[in-house]
Amino acid sequence: MKDVMLSAIQPTNQITLGNYLGAIKNWVKYQSDYDSIFFVVDLHSITVRQDPKELREATYRGLATYIAAGLDPDKCLLFAQSHVPAHAELGWVLNCFTYMGELNRMTQYKDKSAKQGANIPVGLFGYPVLMAADILLYGAKKIPVGDDQKQHVELTRDIAIRMNNVYGDLFTVPEPMIPPVGARIMDLQNPTAKMSKSAENDNGTVFMFDTDKDIEKKIKRAVTDSGTEIAFSDDKPGVKNLLSIQSAITGRATRDLVEGYVGKQYGHLKVETAEIVVNALRPIREEAQRLLSDRGELDRILALGAAKARERAAPTLKRVYEAVGFLPAIKS
Predict the structure, then answer these.
(1) Which residues, at least 6 apart from 250, have a Cβ–Cβ distance to it below 8 Å?
(2) Mean pLDDT computed over every residue of the chain
């Protein structure tokens, strides 16, 4: 039996180069090695108010990008989170076994609530519990995440262990998987911050559906550092980020990339990084656009994936409901 590996991305805005290099590109490699589950987390996305029409479009766009990037519905499980009610149902039970203090310590909650200001939605506070339900429903052992999400996997582990101690062997306790390169692609305009779908300045973020010209402009305008030496160093975050992008796409070690830039200027690094990114993203963008022109096929993939996911999630939810003392549902 292969270990279950699970991950997902919110369908808000467009998927970014950071999402692709930090997550999806690695998923494609993992799908043959693990019992792989990938989905679009539309339930998570409404912690911030969404335009309904755009959310539906973004969900299609996310699925199309997954497939265009190399995820194969015959090799892995693909679906939309809201199509499997067990996620929300288990999420409620887990809420009752999660402590306020644990959620107060979540770094992403602190960051996002500070931006939200007044009237912070309860969902923004509690969404790590829904993420725990996402993971625990399927007995997932391996969770590929960036550094910023590792804290949420640790919370999932704590909840699973807590409930296992009370009720016996309810859940598989998951482990985070953090790739050594490309796990944290930084903003091109602020290389000390992660590249984000919600960044205030779009010039710092490369989106998967950006045109070739847009990509070239953004990377050529990327913030670099003082001095002229091209080095993979923490005191040169802009240069380090461009080298990390190249390494994540090409698979070349950063030390080898640096050797190739001896005596060259930052302009060379930007031009070559832009060329590498354009050549990597163009075929994915074009295939995703082709897939989006046939919504019937995407609907078929979503329906099939959701049916398989509901079937896989049902035994876990039944086991948890029995453990906490709910009456079994009687079919009429």
Answers:
(1) 276
(2) 92
**Cβ-based neighbour number of residue 159 at 10 Å:** 24
**Strands, sheet with 142-144, edge to edge from the N-terminal-most edge strand:** 77-80, 35-40, 4-9, 142-144, 175-177
Is 197 one of the annotated active-site residues of the chain? Answer: yes
> Which residue in 25, 141, 142, 197 is the catalytic one?
197
pLDDT digits (tens, 9 = 90+) for 267-289: 999 999 999 999 999 999 999 99
Instruction: Please pick, among 25, 112, 218, 240, the residue that the annotation labels catalytic.
Output: 112
Supply the DSSP symbol for 184. Answer: S
- Distance separating alpha carbons of residues 245 and 162, to the nearest angstrom: 39
The yes-or-no answer on residue 318 being catalytic is no
- Structural tokens at position 114: 């500070």
Q: Residue 106 is encoded by which pair of tokens? A: 């979540």
pTM of the full predicted structure?
Answer: 0.90
Looking at the DSSP bridge assignments, the partners of residue 205 are: none
> Residue 122: CA atoms inside 13 Å, Cβ hemisphere, count?
3
Verify whether residue 194 is a known catalytic residue.
Answer: yes
Taking only the tens place, the pLDDT of each residue in 229-244 is 899 999 999 999 999 9
Residue of 194, 236, 240, 270 with catalytic role: 194
Measured CA to CA, the distance from residue 194 to residue 19 in angstroms comes to 10
